[in-house]
Amino acid sequence: MPSVFSKRFTTEIEGPFVVFLIGMRINKVSAVRKWLPAAQAMPRMLKVLREHPEKGCLSSETFFRFPPLQTILVSYWRSFDHLERFARNTDDPHLAAWHEFNRKVGSDGTVGIWHETYRVEAGSYETFYNNMPAFGLAAATGNILPALGRRNSARERMAMAQESPIVEGA
Predict the structure, then answer these.
(1) What mean pLDDT value characterizes the chain?
(2) Rounded to an integer, what distance in angstroms lies between the CA atom of residue 147 and that of residue 103?
(3) Distance between CA 109 and CA 34 in Å, rounded?
(4) Residues 6 or more apart from 130 whose CB is under 8 A from it?
(5) How does DSSP assign 89-118, residue by residue?
(6) Separation CA 20–CA 3 (nearest Å)
(7) Residue 120 phi/psi, 5° resolution?
(8) Which of 64, 71, 59 is nearest to 135 (CA)?
(9) Tens digit of each residue's pLDDT (9 = 90 or more) over 31-58
(10) Residue 46, Cβ neighbours under 10 Å: how many?
(11) Listing from the earlier edge strand, what are the strands of the sheet with 111-120?
(12) What is the pLDDT of residues 107-153, one digit of tens each?
């Protein structure tokens, strides 16, 4: 279990990054043969991404909700190009799983799949954590900064980011 930082903290990341949300909703629980392969595909993809940080996935967290059974994966990527390259690469596990899902499920209504992609520019975000382990963007960056002084409030963190965003290569 990750260590909890019993202090207020924030994080920063150099340059732009991508937040990718993806999820599945089981609309027909009895259709196990349709939703189980999709559910089993994600852990394989995450294993590849953990073993190959050069693919650009910085970190991810998975959440579940029921009823109905739904999952969401929140992931942080170095860039949209990294994300798209992983999704389309025939040597990576996503493309085959996506083709299989479309072949077995398609649009029959048994299993819902969705995703949202957000490109975040430098200086256009702020973060805050308290009594938490490194989580979310802080886990993705590993950059734990005390939320003191100008980093104490959301407004000040946003103002600091907009005044002098961290620029890649600077």
Answers:
(1) 93
(2) 49
(3) 10
(4) 7, 8, 9, 147
(5) -TTSHHHHHHHHHHHHTTTSSSEEEEEEEE
(6) 25
(7) -110, 120
(8) 59
(9) 999 999 989 999 999 999 999 999 999 9
(10) 16
(11) 57-65, 70-77, 17-26, 111-120
(12) 999 999 999 999 999 889 999 999 999 999 999 999 999 999 989 99
- Give the number of residues written for the chain: 170
Identity of the amino acid at 155: R
Amino acid identity of 157? R
CB neighbours of residue 53 within 10 Å: 11
**Rounded CA gap, 143 and 148, in Å?**
15
Which tokens go with 115?
A: 């995703």
CA distance 126 to 75: 17
Closest to 62 in 3D by CA, of 84, 77, 35, 43: 43
Quick one: which of 81, 92, 89 has its CA closest to 17?
81
Q: How confident is the model at residue 164 (pLDDT cuts 50, 70, 90)?
A: low
The residues that bridge with 113 in the sheet, in sequence order, are 24
* Range with the poorest average pLDDT among 1-5, 72-76, 163-167: 163-167
How far apart CA 160 and CA 120 sit, in angstroms, is 16
Distance between CA atoms of 70 and 82, rounded to whole angstroms? 26
pLDDT tens, position by position, 76-102: 999 999 999 999 999 999 999 999 999
